Amino acid sequence: MVEKIYDTIRAIIYNEFPLNSSGQPVVYDRQIQEWFFGDRQIIPSPLGIIMRGTQSSIKDVGYGLREIEYTIGITFYSDGDDKETSERVVQESARILHTILKNHRTMYICDLCPFCDKFPLNPIHYIDNGVITNVGINTAVLPANSTSYTVYINGNSNLGLAGTSVIRLSNGISGKTTVAEILSSGVGINTTSYSDAYVNLSLTLSGGSTHTGYSTTLMNSYATNVSNQINAFWIETHTTTAPPYLDWSGVAYNAVSEFISDWSANIKPTGITNVSTWTNNLNSIVSNNVSLVRLLQDIQVDNITPSDDGMEKAFLHTAEFKLKAKEIISVDQFGPNNVNVNAI
What integer is the mean pLDDT of 201-218? Predict the structure, then answer.
């Protein structure tokens, strides 16, 4: 239940911690050298991490809805330096991790992609024909009497599924327009810049899905179906025909869920079944009850011990986190109410 949560947290640390010239996560000049999952064994290392699942509580929150609350322990340890250096390293590790985790109130937990065998951090991987991942503000000024300014950048239908990227600009603490919030990353984006009368932006794009071709086209068709469903629900309670923007990660999440549901019901597109590796991977996913994408919500840092003070521990110092997160799962099938007659 928590193995892929470990993998995701590890990947977030790799992506968002300070990196050295070799692309490895570091604190000061100490590289994170050791990673342990569910193991408290400690070996001499300038910096290491232990991740372990301390508790998973389960309760039914409605008929067919179950809530799982995870409590994950994350421990930094430093050993092999003098006591003060080890103390500073683990305290700085705790500070950096907290600044990262406070931005992750929700987190997608993905399994290996059956098409490319890569480990995605976001379900948009399945429909990614180029999305905006970062916005640099070259120049920007808000319109008169405005507290924010929204930019809309259209995707390119020639790249596959096209979705508008929505970026909201606002003033930072300095009073200048320095905050760029990506409300929707868009799909099929192929421009690296944008300018109008108010802003001049530089954009960083993703590389797109590594499994281009039929699999991407197929998932895009499922994403289109999900988008149509969202629009249909929207017009039931709104006067406009569609929401101002779509959460493409959420769309991809539902698209993957619908695709796997069809596959388990033996609805298997020819273009997929013609590729034996994809077929074997998907059959294994279904037979082993693997969820390709899960969503953790209400993620909170429950407790931080930034240092154990190293009392009577020679050169070993540790910093500990407790991370809490909730997952709501749907139980849409019940039964059989008895065991197979051949069960032993």
Answer: 88
Neighbours of 273 (CB within 10 A): 13
Chain segment 158-171, per-residue pLDDT in tens: 888 899 999 999 99
Q: Angle 42-48-52 (CA atoms, 0-180°, nearest 5)?
A: 75
Q: What angle do CA 157, 162, 166 make, to 5 degrees?
A: 135
Distance CA 153, CA 167 (A): 8
Contact 65/48 with Cβ under 8 angstroms? no
Chosen CATH of 3-110+295-330 out of 3.30.2000.30, 3.30.2090.10, 3.40.50.1980, 3.40.50.300? 3.30.2000.30
Q: How far apart, in whole angstroms, are the C-alpha atoms of residue 164 and residue 154? A: 4
Q: List b or e across 214-247, with b for residues whose CB sees 16 or more CB atoms inside 10 angstroms.
A: bbbebbbebbeebbeebeeeeeeeeeeeeeebbe
Is a pLDDT exceeding 80 seen at residue 309? no
Residue with tokens 């991407």: 216
Q: Are 52 and 40 in contact (CB under 8 A)?
A: yes
Please report, for residues 16, 62, 180, the alpha-carbon distance to residue 167 in angstroms, rounded to integers and kept in the order given: 21, 37, 7
pTM of the model: 0.85
What is the mean pLDDT of the segment spanning 69-92?
Answer: 83
Please give the Cα distance from 177 to 181 (Å, whole number): 11
In this predicted structure, what is the pLDDT of residue 314?
Answer: 54
Domain ranges of the chain: 3-110+295-330, 129-205, 213-290
